[in-house]
Amino acid sequence: MYDNIIRQYLTKHGFEALTPKAVLFDMDGVLYDSMPYHARSWHTSMAAFGLDMKPEEAYMYEGMRGVETIKLIARRQWNKELTDDEAAAMYKRKTEEFCACPKAKKMEGVEELMRMIKDGGKEIVVVTGSGQGSLLKRLEEDFAGLIDSRLVVTAADVSRGKPDPEPYIKGLAKAGIKPCEGIVVENAPLGVRAAVAAGIFTVAVNTGPLPDKALADEGADLIFPDMKEAKNFFKQTIF
Description:
The radius of gyration is 17 Å and the shape is globular. The relative contact order is 0.18. The chain is an alpha/beta fold and 239 residues long. Helix content is 47%, strand content 10%. The model has no long low-confidence stretch (mean pLDDT 93). The protein contains 12 helices and 6 strands.
């Protein structure tokens, strides 16, 4: 069913075969249903500084490091280049707003998918643009036996966040694999762009309000509406 799509991926990147040894997951909107809280926090915190960031914009910037998002918006609205310290101070306010939100639940179906991946002898890597300590420290506890902190890439690990491929390239390095030995699970356009640029087969799960076209335009190899459909792909193709 997916043979033609996989062949297209192999031809595009010049690989002989897709031989997955690890699956690289984004965090917000993939592992946790946290994006509505992020969207609200971005809107409220940026308004306090006089920047207009509509909640739905958070989904378009999702995956980018927080300070880079703030610099981008300030550049567009204020025609001003913020320093790292200025952007970090503003991001601190956003973090405080997010921490005041209810605890984000795990995305429905993702734990079952991850268990299937681990039971199949594959590694799980988390690649997130987040620097939200409140979520990051929960990973090993919420996904006990599935996530190893040594296989997590965060905003602190990279100099260039998504959509630059650096986060996914570092994820590959941590797992000790080549691009054709990984599969990415993403939900954000910028995350898809980063994964595709890193040469990794990219599965997009559209858990937010954006149209599928926003993910397709960035090069997603496959797009599913939920984790259940994504699980079927892994079951039929990998295991």
